[in-house]
Amino acid sequence: MQASATDDEGVWKFPNGEAYYAYILRQQASIDITPEEVHELGLAEVERIQAEMRQVFDELGYPQDVSLGVLMNRAIDDGGYYDMQTSGGKEQVVEAYEQLIDGADQALDTVVDIRPEAEVIVVGGPIGGYYVSAPLDGSRPGMFHASTGGSRVPKYSMPTVAYHEAIPGHHFQIALAQEMDLPLFRNDLFFNGYGEGWALYAERLAWELGLYEDDPYANLGRLQLELLRTNPRSKGANW
């Protein structure tokens, strides 16, 4: 396989590859936008987000002549961790997520007048950072699976993950859709452009509601994860 493999990865190298790529983009984004337009938008958003991160670093008194990657690693350490090697460490992570979700739920009182009937619970485990919706028959709540694996869990990204996966993110949107009087395919079908777009909007909404106001490290976590989705150069945040 190594002998026949090439370095020109991408569907563009196949017959009709560029047309296929544009089709998949349309399918995922649910809007008519060209790959070139997406790339340019990504570049502009990277510049905006990095500028916002610099502003937070300045407010923390971090040096200005250091790369964002170095500053972010310092902020992660300064933000603190939950130690998974100590007794009760995993329970602390679950409880912290529950408090974050409860706080977001209360903050929504000022901006929403409809809520899903299904509840969401936090389930700690070795693999996390994802949401499993409640069944249509309501036999169990929605479940936010939170990572309690490894030796420690950084605190800085926990608020954004909670808002994205639970409230006002995936749980809020998916549970409402499931509970509406609509054809089954509209209750259950998930479009990435809308579903993930809503969850990303939910992170921003939490910021607008002041949920990051007293935690600059969590705000940096929000911006870092926004940069992760925006960056057109790689799958991860390119500093």
Description:
This protein has a domain at 65-228. The chain is 52% helix and 9% strand. The chain contains nine helices and five strands. It has helices at residues 17-29, 35-60, 68-79, 89-107, 158-165, 170-179, 184-188, 192-208, 216-230; strands at 81-83, 120-125, 130-132, 142-147, 152-154. A three-stranded mixed beta sheet has the order 2-4-3, with helices on one face. Helix 5 packs across helix 8 (192-208). The model is unreliable at 234-239 (pLDDT under 50).
Oligomer: single chain
Q: Averaging pLDDT over every residue, what do you get?
A: 93
User: Taking Cα atoms only, what radius of gyration do you get, to the nearest Å?
Assistant: 20 Å
Series of secondary-structure elements, N-terminal to C-terminal? HHHEHEEEEHHHHH
Helix content: 40-55%
The total of beta strands comes to 5
What's the end-to-end separation, in Å?
Answer: 33 Å
How much strand content do the residues show? 5-15%
Task: Report strand order across the widest sheet.
Answer: 2-4-3
Number of helices: 9
Structural class: mainly alpha
Low-confidence stretches: 234-239
Q: Helices, strands, pairings?
A:
Layout: H1 17-29, H2 35-60, H3 68-79, E1 81-83, H4 89-107, E2 120-125, E3 130-132, E4 142-147, E5 152-154, H5 158-165, H6 170-179, H7 184-188, H8 192-208, H9 216-230
Parallel strand pairs: 2-4
Antiparallel strand pairs: 1-5, 3-4
Short summary:
This protein is mostly helical and 239 residues long. It has helices at 17-29, 35-60, 68-79, 89-107, 158-165, 170-179, 184-188, 192-208, 216-230; strands at residues 81-83, 120-125, 130-132, 142-147, 152-154. The longest helix has 26 residues, at 35-60.
